[in-house]
Write the structure tokens for this entry.
Amino acid sequence: MLRSFTYGFVAIVLAGTVAACTSSTALINNGTGTGPNFATGTLYATNSTQNSVSIYGISPVNGASPQYQIGGTSTSLNGPDYLAFDGLNNLWVTNYNAASGASQITIIKALATGNVSPLQGFSSVGHVRGLAYSTKNALMAVATTISGGNGSSDQVLFFSNSGGLTLASQPLAGSNTGLNQPSGVAFDASNNMYVTNQGNASVEKFVVPTPTPTPVPTATPTASPTPSPTPSPTATPPGATATPSPTPVPTPVFNVAPMATIIGAATGLVSPAAIAVDSTGLLYVADPGSSSIRVFAAGASGNVAPIAVIAGPLTQLQTPTDIKIDPSGNVYVADAGANKILVFSPLNGATGAQNIAPKSTLAVVGNVIGLGFSP
């Protein structure tokens, strides 16, 4: 079964949902293709060249290899980029195949491992990239780069999977948003949403949209003129006013300006790919363009310098693509250039240049892109 519909700027195709759900459920119920009851804080990492997701465990030691893996033809993983967990602990993975341009989101059942069929999967126009889950709004936010044209088409999509996966609200999109090749998404403790833009080297802060009522994604509606026109054998007589052609109502978008934007030469940002927010509100930005992690104060806005920068030869940073902070303040960085996961000790208030060695590095076979901790 193949069903497609258009919503906002993005065409979504849901393929094989029923078959995928049946297969994955059977595997889970039979105890096949599932891992142990992974504890909170288990580290997951995407591997774009191996088309897999590696599972390391909690606080893996220096040199640790993955304990489990999600991978194989049944998973539909195709250039996995970033990952996040939803409110049901299911794993969401964005995929992008640079050679073919194929872009998709794959949702995998909680605790699944091995060559497991996804619960659901769908393709998207554009390049779906970073994603993060809002526990307050029960929404998954997915950054989507379409044209990279100053927000003309780029957007953040919002999904809900309660009662079946659906687009849950209007996308954040439009010229007012300033989105320009959005790549990373994160939420703070107050549910503010942060988006990194690689196109204009910025970090933007938004309020998560909560529309009422929630719109339902449908195909472009066919409008009916009111009153219904009466057929006439002749053309419209001179001086008469023709009944206007009905215009379909466009799908609404949240075309709103950010609450705050970090941008400018003082920031040192070049092409920020991902962002994480720690428990104190500090913003950690992984910037492959400057081979650094740049840390901004809570509430930072404008052309401001970071309060700390993790960079230099001791760090081993080359092309950091994702970043996560664990509850103890340890900084986990996926580095696609070094093909490593680098773990740094908590900064504990340290400021300025931090040319520090990681306290541990994790083995990666292939190209690591995204990171996430199980809820």
Remarks:
- The chain has a mean pLDDT of 82.
- The first helix runs from residue 17 to 30.
- Helices lie at 17-30.
- The chain is about 5% helix and 40% strand.
